[in-house]
Design brief:
Order of helices and strands: HEEEEEEEHEEEEEEEEE
CATH architecture of the domain at 229-334: Sandwich
Helix content: 25-40%
Number of strands: 16
Radius of gyration: 65 Å
Number of helices: 2
Structural class: alpha+beta
Shape: rod-shaped
Largest sheet: 5 strands, antiparallel
CATH topology of the domain at 229-334: Immunoglobulin-like
Length: 335
């Protein structure tokens, strides 16, 4: 009987020890929970590093997010298009590509070592409207081009009107000039007709002379007194024929002189004599005309003209020495 009280005391001690130990454990748990619940939530901050509107890419970085009483462990980014990224390291220039243009709100949360989450999250808004702005720019450029084309067309129309007015003025001036020339021509023809009538009246009033005495139709030797060949065609009075310098046209680059030579009858220019051939320094010029245009070097040249009548086959040669000077002149004398 004496051992039962001892056993009861021992059991009571065990119960008290267990109760005491449970109270300590509960206290520690409550203390730990209280400590956790009293921690300050971290503060999130973000920044947009770049925005590529052409390719719809944004890069994002943590902008010094911090926890006042702990350390940051995790980050969560909601890009605003239904997609999220969960990171265990600080986001630095993290890229994200959007499928379409529009306005998006980006949110960043950070979680500390106690599991506390930043509230509210760091947020920023972005707008991707490159295509819209590009279309507006293209429309503005197209409108500017249309206005410029209209301006050019109006300027071209005014220029065409101005040119047409100038052309009409030129045509009017040409018509006026033609009318003036026709009037002058009519006046000249009228004056010539009146002069011809006067000459006809005078000729009608002048006695007709007897026909010329036929003389020898030959080419005699040079006349010593005149140094000219005397040729009297049949049915005509005496006439003196010679080679003449008709015109000097100028000096060529090589120093030659361009000159026109002709045969003529000094006393009776209407005598029907033609030149059959010309020769310069014994070379046939192959020109069957009454005058020639030739290029002569400075110095003395022998010129020969063969004369024939229109009504006979008689022929004779006139010769002359032609001296071409370096000053662009020439002297002709009978040989």
């Amino acid at each position: 009987m004496t051992d039962e009280p001892k056993k009861g005391n021992k059991s009571l001690a065990v119960v008290l020890f267990v109760l005491l130990l449970g109270g300590v454990v509960v206290g520690l748990v409550l203390k730990s929970h209280h400590a956790k619940s009293s921690k300050v939530a971290p503060v999130a901050a973000l920044r947009v590093d770049s925005l590529d509107e052409t390719n719809r890419i944004v890069t994002l970085s943590d902008n010094s997010s911090h926890d006042p009483d702990g350390t940051l462990q995790r980050w969560r980014i909601a890009w605003g298009d239904g997609k999220e990224d969960n990171l265990t390291s600080v986001p630095l220039k993290t890229p994200h590509t959007y499928d379409a243009e529009g306005e998006y709100t980006i949110s960043l949360w950070c979680v500390d070592n106690y599991g506390a989450t930043s509230s509210p999250p760091a947020m920023t808004n972005i707008t991707l409207d490159f295509l819209k702005r590009q279309k507006a720019l293209e429309e503005a450029q197209a409108e500017a081009k249309r206005q410029a084309d209209q301006l050019k067309a109006e300027q071209a129309r005014k220029e065409a009107e101005r040119l047409e007015q100038e052309r009409q003025k030129e045509l009017a001036a040409q018509e006026a000039q033609k009318a003036k020339e026709r009037q002058e021509l009519e006046q000249k023809q009228k004056a010539e007709a009146e002069l011809a009538q006067q000459k006809a009246k005078q000729a009608a009033a002048t006695p007709v002379p007897p026909p010329p005495t036929p003389l020898a139709a030959a080419l005699p030797e040079d006349n010593p007194s005149s140094r000219m060949v005397v040729y009297t065609p049949a049915g005509y009075t005496l006439g003196d024929f010679q080679i003449s310098k008709e015109k000097i046209e100028g000096t060529e680059q090589n120093g030659n002189l361009r000159v026109i030579l002709a045969t003529r009858c000094v006393n009776f220019p209407d005598t029907p004599i033609v030149t059959s051939a010309w020769q310069i320094d014994g070379q046939d010029t192959q020109l069957q005309v009454g005058r020639i245009r030739t290029s002569l070097a400075p110095g003395v040249h022998l010129v020969t003209a063969t004369l024939t009548r229109k009504t006979a086959s008689d022929a004779a040669a006139l010769q002359a020495e032609l001296t071409v000077r370096t000053n662009g002149d020439c002297v002709l004398k009978r040989k």
